[in-house]
Amino acid sequence: MDMATKTPHVLCINPWIYDFAAYDHFSRPLGLLYVAAYLKSRGVEASLIDCMDKHHPDLLKRQGRSKPKLTRYGIGQFHREIIPNPECLSYMPRHFARYGWPEDIFISELKNRPAPDAILVTSGMTYWYPGPRRVIELCREHFPGVPILLGGIYASLMPDHAQQLLAPDHLVTGPGEIEAANILADILKMPHLRENHPTNIDDFPYPAFELYRHVDYYITMASRGCPFRCTFCATYKIDENFNQRKPDAVIEEIFSQTRRFRVKDVAFYDDALFMQAKKHIKPILREVAARKKDLRFHTPNGLHARYIDEELAQLMFDSGFKTIRLSLESVAKERMRDIHNKITPGEMTRAVKNLIKAGYRPRDLETYIIMGLPNQPQEEVLETILYANSLGIHVRLASFSPIPGTKDYERAIENGYLPKDPDPLITNTSVIPLFRTREAYDEFYNISQFTRMLNEGLKLDVKLIPENGLRQTLFKAFDRVRTWE
Fold first, then answer.
1. What span, in angstroms and rounded, lies between the C-alpha atoms of 153 and 238?
2. pLDDT tens figures, 272-284
């Protein structure tokens, strides 16, 4: 490339979230940040507009704040503006909203920037497509003729839908660094962008968090992909390979980047963080604990509790794991077969006991339980909730969302729950998508409220199914109450 010429510039955009609920629980467009970092390492200038950034000065001014309201871990509420419910979700007794900046702040950002040579837009959940659609519309208005690349989860899982409805110039599917560079090689007239790509994931640069005006927490991945093929999950559709990084490389990233950005909180985005624990996560946590740097670790994705033996539990406690979410999903045997027997109730009980022995309180722990699967009886959900409550741990209900390409998505269509080509909006987890009526929503809402009641009870050390003789007395009382009706 002629050094006298202007350095090509790409504008990276993380769109709004359109949904009934959204919360910043270590939410950053990590894939987009990896792509930006890779392009920067190869001579491309990159900038970022993140519509979800809570530190934008115009947003803070509008909120009457000098800084965002955050928890001690750097997470918190997104700015929210209510908008009309989409027609297909008009029956929902909740307000649909745009989360992130008011639209005029985004437009102002576009107006105040020179036209880039290309625009990279990411996408999250498939039912969040209205966000990237609106971003692309506005980019077309303000930067006519500038090529737009769309990547991310929605683009990877529903490329035909995305191409037809959003009409980007190019789609980037799956892991984006190499594919985006190959596409941009011609657009930016930089043929070297398609040459000499890394073959080892440790050779890619760290995500470009430096593009933010303020960093509240750092996000990393010690591995990519997942070796499991659960019937409701599409991770393998986005990245079919499971690769673990070298422990020394992960350790170096954690300490160098938390020092660089002056943060204490680190979230792991891995889908299988504890696989091959002896040679992977244990050495990482052993070194973290030895350095005693007062870091705090979080796992918004579910952990495979099967691998939490006494040693790993103690390493988690000693290294500073604060947000621990264990994948349980269901205790039903037929369901466990669908999730490849990742965990049994006995293994879950053992993991919780190991964590408690290491120093955690039961109420410090959370577990994901899934509800709303095709042909899943409510009794199965309640049984799993009660089992988790008997362990003293908090329950996080995960409503099933039919994800294109998964086995449960096909089951939903075969059983008549979904049309053959459903609008992704009706697969939103907030609406219990397989049961799209107000009556069904109310039934699942009651389960959610019941779960909330149990979780609140745990804060007072009260379990619905106590371990002593009160259990039998309690159930007898339930039976007697029924006779009063």
1. 7
2. 999 999 999 999 9
CATH number for the domain spanning 138: value is 3.40.50.280
Domain assignment of residue 284, given as a range: 217-482
Cα(240)–Cα(233) distance, integer angstroms: 12
Q: Sign of torsion, CA 211 217 222 228?
A: negative
pTM: 0.91
Shared-domain flag, residues 226 and 153: no
Chain-centre distance of CA 390, in angstroms? Answer: 27
Burial class for 185, CB neighbours closer than 10 Å (0-12, 13-18, 19+): middle
231 and 179 in a single domain? The answer is no
| Vertex 84 angle, CA 79 and 89, to 5° | 110
* 423 contacts 165 by C-beta, under 8 angstroms: no
DSSP-derived 3-state class of residue 61: helix
Please check whether residues 267 and 150 belong to one and the same domain: no
Question: Higher-confidence residue: 94 or 438?
Answer: 94
User: Cβ distance 427 to 399 under 8 Å?
Assistant: no
Which stretches does DSSP call E strand in 151-294? 170-171, 218-220, 223-224, 243-244, 265-268
- Taking the C-alpha atoms of residue 119 and residue 422, their distance in angstroms, rounded to an integer, is 29
Q: Please list the alpha-helical segments (H only) found in 276-332.
A: 281-291, 310-319
Phi, psi of 59 (to 5 degrees): -65, -45
